[in-house]
Design goal:
homodimer; alpha/beta; Rossmann fold; two-stranded antiparallel ribbon; 11 strands; metal-binding (chains A, B); alcohol dehydrogenase (NAD+) activity (chains A, B)
């Protein structure tokens, strides 16, 4: 975690002189989370730039820049499911699908997708999910449903919703003795994680991760190489491709929350 | 974690036939947590017996049977402080002193003892503590005090009080990015662990441990060997030695809570 450059949505300016590099008709336009990429040209701190394979198609690998790498890394780098293990993924949006894909790459044999929206289930099979739980289908807590499906608890869980209840469920559904839960979702600022501490004493581990524990400058080029070597298919993460002029249409599609994931195309 | 034999204070009987093996004047005496060791002879499940070096003095190595191994293992097996790292130990009773000793054995260079009772500090130096914090001496949360002492947070923390607030402090005092907090203390049954989930997203880890992750039958003989090889001094963990007839005096001494740790001597 870089103290200097860590994500600061309020900064809006360059660190060196506290000023913006963008303007329109003399009015300053502020920077956004260090990269300001919804523009044809941008200015950013050298620490925010990673050099990737120049052969890589930018209209594809751009999806690796945030949520997808976060989900992949949450499984591959943090949860580290042993071969043949069982993983529960909470939330089957883009990050959760990437977490499932990461669990598959790591060698998990059962990947249980948990989501309140069953329309996401079928497509999630492409990302390695083998089973599904819709908490609405059960009269008991999803922790208990998962414990019954797995003889006491899953080996790993990855939480990709940001919902505080899902975070608690993701922790409480792992098996005593070796279970590891990984929190990926960004919680509401007033959210409080609550659990009985005996759940820890039973030798469980709870970890959080930021960007899947990838160090962007060092590690992102290697994630791009996974795509170039065809070990990682990024195309399946894209459902729509929208020109920049229709950027608000892309946000509307995503807001529908039915598993729609968009690429914004820059066009001259 | 052994499903069959895991600690069950309510069981009180042998598993095979659900009966007690002890009686006095025909009245049954119940078993206690699987070992019933406050007696000259005992009967226990084979899974509760570990064979140790027959040369080991039982009146010394008996202290390794519960809290001391738990504290040692919490540091050595679970927190695993890197060489030269900083460790905070919450609670300087027997378990906390053992956690400090374990951190020292593992190679930590700063070991910060946190306790509300400053009379425990001087002796804790024998167990590797290099600095102390009494939360009562400060107007701000102990997490902040520790962050100031350590440029942002300790590398590892081990919680040995069972107090829920100390558990939360122990988690919140570790450094973003790599900090690991280990919960050892047994919490009150109604206690609730509460923290802002952003504390996890900043790449911290929270683990609990039971018996320091030692597997008793396999690992306890090796802990005894540490003593036999003089790598671990168990004598310093003993402040009083009390004959069995005065067992209640031993409990009274411990209840004073000033760092008194007793051995109960069996005498024929």
């Amino acid at each position: 975690m870089c103290d200097l450059l860590r994500i600061n949505t309020d900064r809006g300016v360059m660190i060196a002189d506290g000023k913006s590099r963008f303007s329109i008709n003399g009015k300053p336009i502020y920077h956004f989370v260090g990269t300001s990429t919804f523009s044809e040209y941008t200015v950013m701190h050298v620490g925010c730039v990673a050099k990737i394979n120049p052969q890589a198609p930018l209209d594809k690998v751009c999806v690796l820049s945030c949520g997808i790498s976060t989900g992949l890394g949450a499984s591959i780098n943090v949860a580290k499911p042993p071969k043949g293990s069982t993983v529960a993924v909470f939330g089957l949006g883009a990050v959760g699908l990437a977490a499932a894909e990461g669990a598959r790459i790591a060698g998990a044999s059962r990947i249980i997708g948990v989501d309140l929206n069953p329309s996401r289930f079928e497509e999630a099979r492409k990302f390695g999910c083998t089973e599904f739980v819709n908490p609405k289908d059960h009269n008991k807590p999803v922790q208990e449903v998962l414990a019954e499906m797995t003889n006491g608890g899953v080996d790993r869980s990855v939480e990709c919703t940001g919902n505080i209840n899902a975070m608690i469920q993701a922790f409480e559904c792992v098996h005593d003795g070796w279970g590891v839960a990984v929190l990926v979702g960004v919680p509401h600022k007033d959210a409080e994680f609550k659990t009985h501490p005996m759940n820890f004493l039973n030798e469980r581990t709870l970890k959080g991760t930021f960007f899947g524990n990838y160090k962007p400058r060092t590690d992102l080029p290697n994630v791009v190489e996974l795509y170039m070597k065809k070990e990682l298919e990024v195309e399946k993460f894209i459902t729509h491709s929208v020109p920049f002029a229709e950027i608000n249409k892309a946000f509307d599609l995503m807001a529908k929350g039915e598993g729609i994931r968009c690429i914004i195309r820059m066009e001259n």
